[in-house]
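Give me the 3D structure for ATPase.
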Amino acid sequence: MNGSVLISGCSGGGKSTMLAELAARGHAVVEEPGRRIVKQEIESGGTALPWADMAAFARSAIEMAIADHKAAREQAGWTFFDRGLIDAAAALQHLTGEPVLEKLSAAHRYQPRVFLTPPWPEIYTTDPERRHGFDEAVAEYDRLVAVYPTLGYDVVMLPKIAVADRADFILDCLPRETRQQ
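Predicted structure for ATPase (181 residues):
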């Protein structure tokens, strides 16, 4: 069984908070590639930033997501991803028209059930790594909602409930047995 579980959706919809909850429960988690890239680029004076060179940023996110996905295959049990390869490939394809999404998605599959956080204006905030506004976040969300089913994923919308209840919801939606090595 594929133990790589993707949590995607609207920027500012509670994904990182959800991953922290799942980590506190003992699950392996992978931080969003985009946030790690922004931190690295700012620290090094790089330009692969979404507000400076979105295509370079998306390409870096694709590389990081592929490495994350490969590393997760070595883990027993569930590994939960805050975004991942499909989000980065969808962004690059939307931006440049490069037909990368289907090829990359076919080569690096996640668990068939993908969880999406819906737009949630009441909790949306910007920060040093998230400079875009809510409208841009919703536009990206709309693209992802359309993309995932075309790639054969079963999309499950996360309810707007407390983080512990959201974590329970996700775990209840996954197959009971976890992947064994």
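The domain at 4-173 is CATH 3.40.50.300 (Rossmann fold). Let me know if you want a second pass.
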